[in-house]
């Protein structure tokens, strides 16, 4: 070791040639997060008569690596709402802490004024929009499920750009491509939410999760499913996708273990 | 009374942060006077939780019954009750909430009750240092649950604490409970707290009051480590028991209050 | 020289533990003309007596709409009330902006209370010289709060502050049971009658000197937005008052069943 700390830990110039520091950006615009790091995939949700059902699997991927397999991506907010997160997991944890501090503030007095799911969605979409306008986005796409102030089932989404979107059934990530067509077939536009039972909604979500597990390489077969009704919130964690049948894979080139 | 007469006219009592020649800070002593006439508050720490209770004197028939809470939630696991100037109490609580939430911001977890008590002690002390502010006109009791039950006033841990007008009688009653042995259960502590407020109210009988109580139990108890209002049914049960106890043994109560009054006064300082 | 040495600022306690500057500010509230507030199960009502500086001048506003679910009635320094009510307006708009919900009444009342308290604990500040009655509606129902310069706030079933307000409070205390059971219109009538109690002999309520504010829950189950009655709009309310006065003098017992 010599007396020039600036060179410590660097390849020796006399052995490897002059150090190329060009990748250490010294000029140019300030940048924030350019891409997410550890991510969760789809969240799917359906409104039914008297409530909303929402589900997400337990996987957090690091690129294509299935890095963490027990991450809960559905978060309860009091007795009012469930929020499903896809996208960056550390940003999810940040938002979760934000929500926790709001929950504490809201409960300073038991005054009968609870924030409902719609209020939360308004708030979160504003947080997301503010961050994208600062060019420092929270890399998430979220679904908020619960009730609005008129006690009607509420389901809406907000993404990293602050875009909001609402529909009787929603899906983020890969689910937007793979689950939405299934849900549209099961619950066409002309079918009123009043005709959809809780059981039907749950089984639809399970079907979607199974298709996602078959075809989304960043998914897994362990998941959480939450039901929000006027009776309260039920969260079923660590559920397993059942009745898997991989026979279809045999006939698909590039899917299974074919060599040609 | 003697104390007051020696302070007036000396000029040493006109500004905060000024010592008198005999080493006293009169403005702080005057602030304590504001507390002495406030409704009595008590806190009891027992083996499986903490109970806070306060006597709310009803100053007008027009007040909404059951509203106007005097016990505040600071964080999920901490509550504060104050005697004295109510607006000062709210200021104190608001600072406590800021401290608790800033702790969460840094450490991503709930603030230990003793740490919160320490920080608030520092905050209150700072209001005795400058002539540009006045001391707080409140004494507060803080109760909370972290790994171990804790009840604290200005940084010191207590098994039982009482402030406000009836504090001497209340302290005498608390001392009888032998809280240090940690034998009292949380449910019994709720009843004792109610009874003590009723006992402390005896000297102020001409005024009506409302009893307000909150509790924090252990994680496997009824509140799961959270600070909550004592449920209505339990509160009413405790109130009934308190009234019965009061009718039962009036004489005994008086004796106890006399015997330990001096000890209570020293604790206050 | 027996001058009170302890009343020069709000940061000095008297030997009895009192803060005179705050108490003096409370006196400013008593100088203001009277306002009355009252609630029943569905509505909160504010009633105020306006004053004009001289015969030809306009009357000073007594009731201010803060948001569609809330209003305040003021007694004391009107300029201090404007500072507070502007702050309340901003906070209410902020809540609607970030959460899409009307700000709960107790929340905003606590906020102005905290502001007022700060003014009683720091040198160079003075306490607000105004008392407020805040009437509002939220998910928990209708609310009425009293706000004092000391930073003291209390939720009330009925309240009156300002000059000669004791007479109104006496009326309200006597009729407390009736208030709870009353309808929206009866509640207004009670408010007007309480206000009338405070008038000196030569005065009476007119469309010029009276203000009424109402907020509550409409029959549809939705919030009935804060409505301010002034001028000619007051005539039906006065009519109801006269009618109820007449029926009361005719037969006191039947008044309650009268609708």
From TrEMBL, chain A:
Major location (coarse): cytoplasm
A Pfam family (short name) is Proteasome
Q: Which PROSITE patterns match?
A: PROTEASOME_BETA_1, PROTEASOME_BETA_2
What subcellular locations does the record give? Cytoplasm; Nucleus
Q: Which InterPro entries match?
A: Ntn_hydrolases_N, Proteasome_beta4, Proteasome_bsu_CS, Proteasome_sua/b, Proteasome_suB-type
What Gene Ontology biological process does one annotation of this record name? proteolysis involved in protein catabolic process
Write down any Gene Ontology CC term.
Answer: proteasome core complex, beta-subunit complex
Q: What keywords would UniProt list here?
A: Cytoplasm, Nucleus, Proteasome
The UniProt record lists the keyword Cytoplasm: yes
The similarity comment for this entry is: Belongs to the peptidase T1B family.
UniProt function note: Non-catalytic component of the proteasome.
Protein name as it appears in the record: Proteasome subunit beta
UniProtKB/TrEMBL annotation, chain B:
GO cellular component annotations of the record: cytoplasm; nucleus; proteasome core complex, alpha-subunit complex
Compositional bias per record (Basic and acidic residues), positions renumbered to this chain:
225-247
Q: Which residues form the Proteasome alpha-type subunits domain?
A: 12-34
List the subcellular locations: Cytoplasm; Nucleus
Q: Give me any GO biological process, just one.
A: ubiquitin-dependent protein catabolic process
PROSITE patterns hit by this protein: PROTEASOME_ALPHA_1, PROTEASOME_ALPHA_2
Spans annotated as Disordered: 220-269
UniProt xrefs under InterPro entries: Ntn_hydrolases_N, Proteasome_alpha, Proteasome_alpha-type, Proteasome_asu_N, Proteasome_sua/b
Keywords assigned: Cytoplasm, Nucleus, Proteasome
Q: Which domain of life is it from?
A: Eukaryota
Pfam families, alphabetized: Proteasome (PF00227), Proteasome_A_N (PF10584)
Q: Which PANTHER family match?
A: PROTEASOME SUBUNIT ALPHA/BETA
Q: Which family does it belong to?
A: Belongs to the peptidase T1A family.
Summarize subunit and interaction data from the UniProt record for this chain.
Answer: The 26S proteasome consists of a 20S proteasome core and two 19S regulatory subunits.
Q: What is this protein called?
A: Proteasome subunit alpha type
UniProtKB/TrEMBL annotation, chain C:
Chief location category: cytoplasm
Q: Which SMART domains match?
A: Proteasome_A_N
Residues annotated as signal peptide: none
A GO cellular component annotated for this chain's UniProt record is: nucleus
Keywords from UniProt, A to Z, are: Cytoplasm, Nucleus, Proteasome
Q: Does the keyword Ribonucleoprotein apply?
A: no
Could you tell me which InterPro entries the record lists for this protein?
Answer: Ntn_hydrolases_N (IPR029055), Proteasome_alpha (IPR050115), Proteasome_alpha-type (IPR023332), Proteasome_alpha1 (IPR035144), Proteasome_asu_N (IPR000426), Proteasome_sua/b (IPR001353)
Top-rank taxon, per record:
Eukaryota
One Pfam family this sequence matches: Proteasome_A_N
- The UniProt transmembrane annotation reads none
Please list the residue ranges annotated as the Proteasome alpha-type subunits domain.
6-28
The subunit structure is: The 26S proteasome consists of a 20S proteasome core and two 19S regulatory subunits.
Q: Which family does the record claim for this protein? A: Belongs to the peptidase T1A family.
The protein's name in its UniProt record: Proteasome subunit alpha type
Q: Upper lineage ranks?
A: Eukaryota, Fungi, Dikarya, Ascomycota, Pezizomycotina
């Amino acid at each position: 070791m010599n007396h020039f700390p600036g060179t410590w830990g660097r390849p020796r110039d006399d052995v490897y040639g002059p150090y190329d520091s060009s990748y250490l950006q010294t000029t140019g615009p300030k940048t924030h997060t350019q891409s997410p790091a550890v991510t969760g995939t789809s969240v799917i949700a359906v409104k039914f008569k008297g409530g909303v059902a929402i589900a997400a699997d337990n996987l957090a991927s690091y690129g294509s690596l299935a890095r963490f397999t027990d991450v809960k991506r559905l978060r309860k907010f009091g007795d009012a709402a469930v929020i499903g997160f896809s996208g960056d997991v550390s940003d999810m944890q940040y938002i979760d802490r934000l929500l926790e501090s709001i929950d504490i503030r809201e409960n300073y007095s038991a005054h009968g004024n609870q924030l409902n799911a719609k209020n939360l969605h308004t708030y979160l979409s504003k947080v997301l929009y503010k961050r994208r306008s600062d060019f420092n986005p929270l890399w998430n796409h979220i679904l908020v499920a619960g009730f609005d102030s008129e006690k009607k089932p509420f389901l809406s989404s907000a993404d990293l750009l602050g875009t909001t979107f609402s529909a009787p059934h929603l899906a983020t990530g890969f689910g937007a491509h793979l689950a939405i067509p299934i849900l549209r077939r099961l619950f066409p536009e002309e079918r009123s939410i009043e005709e959809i039972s809780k059981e039907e909604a749950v089984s639809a979500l399970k079907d979607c999760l199974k298709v996602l597990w078959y075809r989304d390489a960043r998914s897994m077969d362990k998941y959480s499913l939450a039901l929000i009704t006027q009776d309260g919130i039920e969260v079923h964690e660590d559920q397993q996708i059942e009745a898997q049948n991989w026979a279809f894979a045999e006939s698909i080139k590039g899917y299974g273990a074919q060599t040609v | 009374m003697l104390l007051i007469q020696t302070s007036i006219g000396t000029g040493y009592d006109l500004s905060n942060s000024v010592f008198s020649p005999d080493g006293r800070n009169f403005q702080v002593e005057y602030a304590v006077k504001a507390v002495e006439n406030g409704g009595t508050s008590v806190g009891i720490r027992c083996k499986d939780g903490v109970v806070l209770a306060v006597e709310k004197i009803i100053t007008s028939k027009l007040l909404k019954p059951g509203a106007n809470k005097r016990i505040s939630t600071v964080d999920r696991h901490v509550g504060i009750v104050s005697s004295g100037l109510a607006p000062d109490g709210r200021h104190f609580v608001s600072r406590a909430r800021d401290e608790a939430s800033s702790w969460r911001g840094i450490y991503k977890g709930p603030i230990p009750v003793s740490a919160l008590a320490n920080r608030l002690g520092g905050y209150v002390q700072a209001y005795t240092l400058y002539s540009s502010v006045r001391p707080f006109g409140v004494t507060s009791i803080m109760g909370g649950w972290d790994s171990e039950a804790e009840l604290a006033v200005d940084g010191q841990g207590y098994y039982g604490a009482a402030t406000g007008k009836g504090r001497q009688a209340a302290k005498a009653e608390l001392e009888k409970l032998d809280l240090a042995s940690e034998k009292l259960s949380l449910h019994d502590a709720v009843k004792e707290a109610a009874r003590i407020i009723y006992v402390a109210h005896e000297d102020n009988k001409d005024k009506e009051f409302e009893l307000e109580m909150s509790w924090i139990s252990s994680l496997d108890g009824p509140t799961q480590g959270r600070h909550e209002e004592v449920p209505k049914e339990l509160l009413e049960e405790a109130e009934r028991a308190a009234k019965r106890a009061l009718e039962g043994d009036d004489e005994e109560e008086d004796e106890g209050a006399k015997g330990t009054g001096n000890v209570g006064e020293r604790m206050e300082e | 020289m027996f001058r009170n040495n302890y009343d020069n600022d709000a940061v000095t306690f008297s030997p009895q533990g009192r803060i005179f500057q705050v108490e003096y500010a409370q006196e400013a509230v008593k100088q203001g003309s009277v306002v009355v507030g009252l609630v029943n199960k569905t509505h909160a009502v504010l009633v105020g007596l306006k004053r004009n500086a001289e015969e030809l001048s306009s009357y000073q506003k007594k009731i201010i709409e803060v948001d569609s679910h809330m209003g305040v009635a003021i007694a004391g320094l009107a300029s201090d009330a404007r500072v507070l009510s502007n702050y309340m307006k901003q906070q209410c708009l902020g809540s609607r902006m970030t959460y899409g919900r009307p700000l709960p009444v107790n929340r905003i009342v606590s906020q102005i209370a905290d502001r007022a308290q700060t003014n009683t604990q720091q040198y160079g500040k003075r306490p607000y010289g105004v008392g407020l009655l805040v009437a509002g509606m939220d998910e928990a129902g209708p609310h009425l709060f009293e706000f004092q310069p000391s930073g003291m706030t209390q939720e009330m079933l009925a309240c009156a502050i300002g000059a000669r307000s004791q007479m109104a409070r006496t009326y309200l205390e006597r009729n407390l049971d009736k208030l709870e059971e009353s309808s929206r219109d009866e509640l207004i009538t009670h408010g007007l009658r309480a206000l009338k109690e405070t008038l000196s002999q030569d005065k009476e309520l007119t469309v010029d000197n009276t203000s009424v504010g109402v907020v509550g829950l409409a029959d549809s189950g939705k919030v009935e937005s804060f409505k301010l009655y002034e001028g000619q709009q007051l005539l039906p309310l006065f009519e109801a008052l006269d009618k109820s006065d007449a029926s009361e003098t005719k037969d006191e017992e039947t008044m309650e069943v009268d609708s």
